[in-house]
Amino acid sequence: MQPQFTVGQIRPIDCVKEGFRLIKQDYWLLFAITIIGIFIAGFSFYILIGAMVCGMMTAYFRVFDGGRANFDDLWKGFGYIGKSAVAVILILVPGLIYGVVLLLTIYLPIVAMAISGGKISPDELLPVLLGALIVDVIVAFLMVTFHSLMMFVFPLILEHGLSSWDAVKLSARATFKNMSGVAGLIAVNIGIGLLGYLAFCVGIYLAVPILMATNLVAYRQVFPKNAPVLS
User: Fold this and answer.
1) Structural domains in the chain (count)
2) Is a pLDDT exceeding 60 seen at residue 231?
3) CA distance 107 to 96
4) Which of 9, 61, 5, 14 shows the shortest CA–CA distance to 33?
5) DSSP 131
6) Per-residue burial over 65-92, b = 16 or more CB atoms within 10 Å of its CB, e = otherwise
7) Residue 115 pLDDT exceeds 80
8) What is the CA angle 59-229-80, rounded to 5?
9) Residue 223 is part of which domain span?
10) Rounded mean pLDDT, 171-175
11) pLDDT number for residue 204
12) Which residues lie below 8 Å from residue 2, measured CB to CB, with a gap of 6+?
């Protein structure tokens, strides 16, 4: 059974305001839960990213629903390792492909020039780098587009018990139907991230709970908690 979704309800700036309002009382605990979850995911080479994200979202949804954050919520994400496995693969493989493209198009020509002892002139290298930059921008755009289609996957797995594949399909349909709102949300997220980097770079870490809350507010706008389900 899958939940029905709404269309045209995402208001990016309102998502930020509402997200911060909901988490401000438990901000520092949610900050700790989020940062430790991200650290564990990275330490596991992102194999545990599905479990950690589901655990983090469990804490956020508890706060959204009027409760208080609990650090033990993070470990509850381990119960979703199986259901989130396909989603994790779909996230990691494009990232790996992008890394390979970046290596082949940017770093390899630079290494080749260094090994050649300067035999490759800057005039010869510049067109290669410009072409590589264009390729990287295109690949990055495709990755952002693909990942945006998956922005509702983990909350759907968590709240509705969907399998990864069912959650991916439903998330993609909901995103397509709410494309303008999702695009605005991504733009706002990028803006918050840039502001965080400008704040001596450490601000980006402080912004992470706000970004998480913002995206989950958008999810709840698209998939209201008491939305009817389709059998």
Assistant:
1) 1
2) no
3) 15
4) 61
5) H
6) eeeebeeebbebbeebeebbebbbebbe
7) no
8) 35
9) 2-230
10) 94
11) 86
12) 160, 162, 166, 170, 229, 230
